[in-house]
């Protein structure tokens, strides 16, 4: 039996700094709620988690990271950190969608959703044999949601599951465990099969875009 991997995973795609450490089959996790400051908070938090388990960075087999969808700045923070750590340690970094993480361990026809604000939601459909649609940005309207056969008895999970469930007649359910726990477990499963670097999962355009006009010329 191959040794159990040691995985450190983290996620800053929402108003939190979340991390989990999987070692010898045991999982320790920590979620610090915070609206800003994740960039300064993340690395000391990860150091604390390693030290609490008596580990060093070199003991890790891989880095796991939540790639979104979510807050643009938060996603950039975690994905950049994961890539930097992977490069410095010579270990793989494995990106996991937060929508997939919410669906981890659940069976049947499942809709995973996240609040995208402004009466919109990120939505992805997962099948009962592990297949999945592409994640999409939907208006909170019945005619903009993915068309599903009601006889398939779809279930929905996520932070706007109740609203969409009431709208569509889908059964809201709770996810198993936490999102950061699922990100870690999925990363461990993909340790020997994933070769791509993690990339941010941006489904919507940024709210703030750079100005189209050229800046004024500075005359010395």
UniProtKB/TrEMBL annotation:
* SUPFAM superfamilies recorded: Actin-like ATPase domain
| Coiled-coil regions listed | none
Q: What Gene3D superfamilies does the record point to? A: 3.30.420.40
Q: Which InterPro entries match?
A: ATPase_NBD, Gcp-like_dom, T6A_TsaB
Annotated GO biological processes are:
tRNA threonylcarbamoyladenosine modification
Q: Which residues form the Gcp-like domain?
A: 35-127
Region feature Disordered, mapped onto this chain: 198-220
Which cellular components does GO assign to this protein?
A: cytosol
* Name recorded for this polypeptide: tRNA threonylcarbamoyl adenosine modification protein YeaZ
